[in-house]
Amino acid sequence: MGQSLVIQYTHIVFSTKNREKLILPSIEAELFDYLGGVCNEMDCQSLIVGGHLDHVHILCKLSKNVALAKLLEQIKSNSSKWIKTIDSQFSNFFWQDGYGAFSVSRGHVDIVTKYIGNQHAHHCDVTFKNEFLGILKKNDVEYDERHIWD
Questions:
Q1: What share of residues in the chain are helix, strand, coil (percent, to 5)?
Q2: The Cα angle at residue 29 between residues 90 and 131, in degrees rounded to 5
Q3: Is 106 a domain residue?
Q4: In the chain, which stretches have pLDDT less than 70?
Q5: What pLDDT does 55 receive?
Q6: Does residue 96 lie within any of the structural domains?
Q7: Could you give the number of structural domains in the chain?
Q8: 59 in a domain, yes or no?
Q9: Fewest beta carbons less than 10 Å away: which of 5, 28, 37, 46?
């Protein structure tokens, strides 16, 4: 086959360092737009970006030409530098080192989109920690909880 044809929907989840509640309502929309813009610049079409206070979710189409680790490196480093220019209260803003990334079938894109769009209501009842552990279990990801929250 002379052509590489790829469509890979990816649900990415990561938190602020030490899960500090730094994603304030006053900057949330602008931050989410920025994160989606970095994805788009890397040819990884952003479908939705959402989250709540201490973490974000990104649903994107991962480009066949971009390694997932490189995408996350760019998203985190660029947004961390950018947010520090917004206000001095964000001078110590950092993302955690790790992340979760989960493939999403085309048939589940709408479900994941609604899930990400409903983060504020979702987190009235569920902590990020319990949410993330639930995502790992749902996707049969083996993990050592001692190292997830470093």
A1: 45, 20, 35
A2: 85
A3: yes
A4: 1, 150
A5: 96
A6: yes
A7: 1
A8: yes
A9: 5
